[in-house]
Amino acid sequence: MTSLATQIGDFHFKNVLMNASGVHCMTAAELDELAASPAGTLVTKSGTPNARPGNPEPRYQALTMGSINSMGLPNKGLDYYLDYALAFQVKHPQQPIFMSVAGMGPDDYVTLAQKIQDSDFTGLTEFNLSCPNVPGKPQIAYDLETTEQILDNIFRLFKKPAGVKLPPFFDLAQFDQMAALLNRYPLQFINSINSLGNGLMIDPATDTTVIRPKGGFGGIGGAYAKPIALANVRAFRQRLRAEIAIIGTGGVNTGRDVYDLILCGADMVQLGTVLQEEGIPAFARLSQELEAIMATKGYTQLADFKGQLHTIA
Ligand code: RRO
């Protein structure tokens, strides 16, 4: 029997796959569909202190090799997702879920963390430090000082299992600096990577950008992101304390893509563009494709190959 079971800290999941925040997780109905799917767990859309309508449409477009989005953090507000999570954990005490939260500025993270800390939430909290799409708000984790300030403030008061969602990094010195910073905090996990911000796509028929916000700039996901996601997961696995788990996100279209992220060290794998385009059936298809690869290689569990990427001597 092949098992796709995995673990983050003390939390156990039957399947290594889950949604990426932002995809199929805005409403309770969508979250319920994820919970009823083969996915190992789910994460909510990033909640802000107050609900937000997000950017003007069109703000998402599927592309030949992925997607571009400038959603602008549309969400129903932290209270909505907290209410959902509290009701969910009563009904499903054995199925821990993730709640994603995002601030408009450093102070928001304190507000969000305090509210979750004071609640009965028993799952994992993902602090999104990498939204590329709010006009005038840089991606936090590209600024080491602000990241440090936010993490100091969060962990002064937050004692529940937590992780951070990171943007893609490109230079090896960036990995060194960010990993050294993250290693100082009691993180259960990091999630790498958010979409590649910012890209630009043009409709050749009209010479026009394919999305409206920000003059057409937006986060790129899907196959375009795969090599960057692999490099980020691998680079952080080589630098982070072993107790910090890694959620690998970016560029998954096939079971081989899932396998590759795990080979680079991912403990959990999230589906973004592929889930948006294919819907809930993506979980069963990718699980089957991953199991088939593992069977061919004689592997029965993820530990048989996790992090075991070969390099050329
Ligand atoms: O809502 C968004 O525009 C968005 C967010 Br918060 C994020 O973290 N990543 C992304 O690609 N889009």
UniProtKB/TrEMBL annotation:
<comment type="pathway">
    <text>Pyrimidine metabolism; UMP biosynthesis via de novo pathway.</text>
</comment>
<protein>
    <recommendedName>
        <fullName>dihydroorotate oxidase (fumarate)</fullName>
        <ecNumber>1.3.98.1</ecNumber>
    </recommendedName>
</protein>
<dbReference type="InterPro" id="IPR050074">
    <property type="entry name" value="DHO_dehydrogenase"/>
</dbReference>
<keyword id="KW-0288">FMN</keyword>
<dbReference type="InterPro" id="IPR012135">
    <property type="entry name" value="Dihydroorotate_DH_1_2"/>
</dbReference>
<dbReference type="InterPro" id="IPR005720">
    <property type="entry name" value="Dihydroorotate_DH_cat"/>
</dbReference>
<dbReference type="InterPro" id="IPR013785">
    <property type="entry name" value="Aldolase_TIM"/>
</dbReference>
<keyword id="KW-0665">Pyrimidine biosynthesis</keyword>
<keyword id="KW-0285">Flavoprotein</keyword>
<dbReference type="InterPro" id="IPR001295">
    <property type="entry name" value="Dihydroorotate_DH_CS"/>
</dbReference>
<dbReference type="InterPro" id="IPR033886">
    <property type="entry name" value="DHOD_1A"/>
</dbReference>
<dbReference type="GO" id="GO:1990663">
    <property type="term" value="F:dihydroorotate dehydrogenase (fumarate) activity"/>
</dbReference>
<dbReference type="Pfam" id="PF01180">
    <property type="entry name" value="DHO_dh"/>
</dbReference>
<keyword id="KW-0963">Cytoplasm</keyword>
<keyword id="KW-0560">Oxidoreductase</keyword>
<comment type="similarity">
    <text>Belongs to the dihydroorotate dehydrogenase family. Type 1 subfamily.</text>
</comment>
<comment type="subunit">
    <text>Homodimer.</text>
</comment>
<feature type="domain" description="Dihydroorotate dehydrogenase catalytic">
    <location>
        <begin position="4"/>
        <end position="294"/>
    </location>
</feature>
<dbReference type="InterPro" id="IPR023359">
    <property type="entry name" value="Dihydro_DH_chainA_dom2"/>
</dbReference>
